[in-house]
């Protein structure tokens, strides 16, 4: 029989209710239109990833979180000068029992382990083109200052008291667990040991005097915040889950550990016998990065979007907003939650030996290829499966054949001998559909293509705002298919530049296809930055012409001049994305990693 978790409170119990300095009523987020609708408040945007534990090397799940945040912040930056003020932070979570134990097992001093693994993360993110503006390590002095200050604010507001915590603690997940979340698992010798029901990680019984945070006082404020901000947690099912959690009892939370037990952390100010709980320490990283406790942080908070995995939802959607409200601050504007990657249908785990090294993937599929795969196939609502054939099939069909093929068809010398952006002929492709005449060549499907590509940037922006980057890529891919259909339909290779009848239409077909490619290249920049650069450079689009704000698709069709018409294409740079060979050994390799 398991003992019952007990939170016995020894300190003051009847403290006054928290007074909340900031209003946290409904807040409206921009719809993502590309017009100048972003107001001053929304002009600043701050994206964060979780900060990752340094007990093990990074895997594809960590890279995925960083890529989501990277794509969101790159897209935001592309929206133009009014939204240029974008920050994006990631980093490593280096304190706590888990790291202390991992260092001891590895026979290393904690700092050595932290330096080593944090460097792995930094190198990986650099290789993968993660455009973070800050990489924070919780062992930095600036972070200690922020955490201790934050602690002081909670203390001064009567939200911390001393009490005895007795119950289960899971060092792997760094969390306390109620009895109902603990079960027993059989060991290899038939013995049984207690584990967390959710994660399966071992738990141990803990009893010690700690500082305790009055979390129970925040149940209603949190409910009000979530009900008033239905988009606070996206996708919606996760918002719903959090509200369900809040229907249950919300006990106070132990926020320190005895230093004799946990020495690897930030000491409680004024009480060296206690170390601050690693989650309180870790969550404050989001403030450290924007300069907290200096007033400058206020211009970035709460214009914040946290990108997190579903495993750490409770910490971000309950503990963190409660800490913030307690400190007199607003909860973050958005919490974007994603599900997990599995490998060949299995959860990644060290014991199964199937943890996939992201650097191997970047080498095999190229940086842009793997970025595209993860963001195109990763669906936030559900777990997604990774296996080699799936990546090869997707990249060959969408990047090598469809997109690369399209570029090649429109720029190859034999079809475009002058290597220019040809002229658009308004008589061949009048802006009004249904006109008839001897030189009118455009058909109904061609108008459908123009309409699809014209609305694509707005559609993509809406998908980004709803944290559905995979849908944005799906929409781009569908337009690429439609454009290939357009080229196929009009078979420019059968038209003759020498013929006065064919030439204007041949130029128009290429002009339209190149305009579509220009839109695709611009929209793909946040996901495949190098590939998009190669594509846009080949089209002769200069660096200053790549923002979403200036992306006027097919202006000649709408009666405006086109700055690209007649311009020379950029130099030939070879295949846009070389086809990948299937690998027979890959599965075996992935399992052995
Ligand atoms: O929880 N698929 O760090 P962590 C997708 N230090 N994403 C995954 C994943 C998978 N299979 N596995 C992990 C911590 N992730 C704390 C965070 S934040 C203040 C402190 C990603 O190293 C996902 O984002 O265990 C998940 O939430 C995070 O890595 C957990 O990383």
UniProtKB/TrEMBL annotation:
<dbReference type="InterPro" id="IPR033911">
    <property type="entry name" value="MetRS_core"/>
</dbReference>
<keyword id="KW-0436">Ligase</keyword>
<dbReference type="GO" id="GO:0005759">
    <property type="term" value="C:mitochondrial matrix"/>
</dbReference>
<dbReference type="InterPro" id="IPR015413">
    <property type="entry name" value="Methionyl/Leucyl_tRNA_Synth"/>
</dbReference>
<keyword id="KW-0067">ATP-binding</keyword>
<dbReference type="InterPro" id="IPR014729">
    <property type="entry name" value="Rossmann-like_a/b/a_fold"/>
</dbReference>
<keyword id="KW-0030">Aminoacyl-tRNA synthetase</keyword>
<comment type="similarity">
    <text>Belongs to the class-I aminoacyl-tRNA synthetase family.</text>
</comment>
<keyword id="KW-0809">Transit peptide</keyword>
<keyword id="KW-0648">Protein biosynthesis</keyword>
<dbReference type="InterPro" id="IPR009080">
    <property type="entry name" value="tRNAsynth_Ia_anticodon-bd"/>
</dbReference>
<protein>
    <recommendedName>
        <fullName>Methionine--tRNA ligase, mitochondrial</fullName>
        <ecNumber>6.1.1.10</ecNumber>
    </recommendedName>
</protein>
<feature type="domain" description="Methionyl/Leucyl tRNA synthetase">
    <location>
        <begin position="46"/>
        <end position="410"/>
    </location>
</feature>
<feature type="domain" description="Methionyl-tRNA synthetase anticodon-binding">
    <location>
        <begin position="444"/>
        <end position="542"/>
    </location>
</feature>
<dbReference type="Pfam" id="PF19303">
    <property type="entry name" value="Anticodon_3"/>
</dbReference>
<dbReference type="GO" id="GO:0006431">
    <property type="term" value="P:methionyl-tRNA aminoacylation"/>
</dbReference>
<dbReference type="GO" id="GO:0004825">
    <property type="term" value="F:methionine-tRNA ligase activity"/>
</dbReference>
<dbReference type="GO" id="GO:0005524">
    <property type="term" value="F:ATP binding"/>
</dbReference>
<dbReference type="InterPro" id="IPR041872">
    <property type="entry name" value="Anticodon_Met"/>
</dbReference>
<keyword id="KW-0547">Nucleotide-binding</keyword>
<dbReference type="Pfam" id="PF09334">
    <property type="entry name" value="tRNA-synt_1g"/>
</dbReference>
<dbReference type="InterPro" id="IPR023457">
    <property type="entry name" value="Met-tRNA_synth_2"/>
</dbReference>
<keyword id="KW-0496">Mitochondrion</keyword>
<dbReference type="InterPro" id="IPR014758">
    <property type="entry name" value="Met-tRNA_synth"/>
</dbReference>
């Amino acid at each position: 029989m398991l003992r019952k978790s007990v939170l016995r409170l020894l300190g003051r119990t009847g403290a006054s209710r928290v007074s909340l300095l900031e209003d946290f009523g409904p807040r409206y987020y921009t719809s993502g239109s590309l017009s100048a609708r972003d107001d001053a408040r929304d002009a600043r945007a701050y994206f964060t990833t979780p900060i990752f534990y340094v007990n093990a090397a990074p895997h594809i799940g960590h890279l995925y979180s960083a890529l989501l945040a990277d794509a969101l912040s790159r897209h935001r930056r592309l929206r133009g000068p009014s939204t240029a003020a974008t920050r994006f932070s990631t980093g490593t979570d280096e304190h706590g029992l888990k790291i202390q134990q991992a260092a001891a097992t590895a026979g290393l001093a904690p700092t050595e382990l932290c330096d080593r693994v944090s460097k792995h993360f930094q190198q990986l993110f650099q290789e993968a083109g993660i455009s973070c503006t800050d990489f924070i390590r919780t062992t930095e002095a600036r972070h200690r200052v922020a955490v201790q200050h934050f602690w002081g604010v909670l203390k001064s507001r009567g939200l911390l008291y001393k009490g005895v915590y007795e119950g289960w603690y899971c060092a792997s997940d760094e969390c306390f667990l109620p009895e109902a979340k603990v079960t027993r698992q059989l060991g290899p010798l038939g013995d049984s040991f207690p584990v967390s029901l959710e994660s399966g990680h071992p738990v141990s019984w803990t009893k010690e005097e700690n500082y305790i945070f009055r979390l129970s006082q925040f149940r209603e404020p949190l409910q009000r915040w979530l009900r008033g901000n239905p988009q606070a947690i996206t996708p919606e099912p996760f918002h719903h889950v959090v509200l369900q959690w809040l229907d249950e009892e919300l006990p106070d939370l132990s926020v320190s550990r005895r230093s004799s037990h946990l020495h690897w952390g930030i000491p409680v100010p004024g009480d060296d016998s206690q170390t601050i709980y690693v989650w309180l320490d870790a969550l404050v990283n989001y403030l450290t990065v924007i300069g907290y406790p200096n007033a400058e942080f206020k211009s970035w908070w709460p214009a914040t979007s946290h990108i997190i995995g579903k495993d750490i939802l409770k910490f971000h959607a309950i503990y963190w907003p409660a800490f913030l409200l307690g400190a007199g601050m607003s909860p973050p504007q958005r919490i974007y939650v994603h599900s997990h990657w599995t490998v060949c249908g299995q959860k990644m785990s060290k014991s199964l030996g199937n943890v996939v090294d992201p650097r191997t993937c970047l080498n095999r599929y190229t940086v842009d290829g793997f970025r595209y795969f993860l963001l195109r196939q990763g669906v936030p609502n559900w777990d997604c499966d990774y296996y080699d054939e799936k990546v090869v099939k997707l990249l060959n069909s969408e990047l090598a054949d469809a997109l690369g093929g399209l570029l090649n068809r429109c720029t190859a010398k034999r079809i475009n001998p002058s290597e220019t952006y040809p002229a658009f002929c308004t008589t061949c492709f009048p802006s009004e559909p249904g006109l008839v005449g001897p030189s009118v060549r455009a058909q109904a499907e061609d108008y459908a293509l123009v309409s699809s590509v014209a609305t694509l940037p707005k559609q993509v922006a809406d998908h980004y705002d709803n944290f559905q980057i995979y849908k944005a890529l799906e929409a781009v891919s569908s337009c690429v298919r439609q454009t290939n259909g357009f080229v196929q339909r009009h078979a420019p290779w059968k038209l003759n530049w020498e013929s006065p009848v064919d030439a204007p239409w041949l130029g128009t077909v290429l002009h339209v296809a190149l305009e579509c490619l220009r839109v695709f290249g611009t929209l793909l920049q946040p996901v495949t930055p190098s590939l998009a650069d190669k594509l846009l450079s080949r089209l002769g689009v200069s660096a200053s012409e790549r923002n979403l704000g200036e992306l006027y698709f097919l202006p000649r069709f709408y009666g405006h001049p086109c700055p690209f018409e007649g311009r020379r294409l950029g130099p030939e740079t070879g295949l846009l994305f070389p086809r990948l060979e299937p690998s027979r050994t890959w599965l075996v390799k992935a399992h052995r990693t």
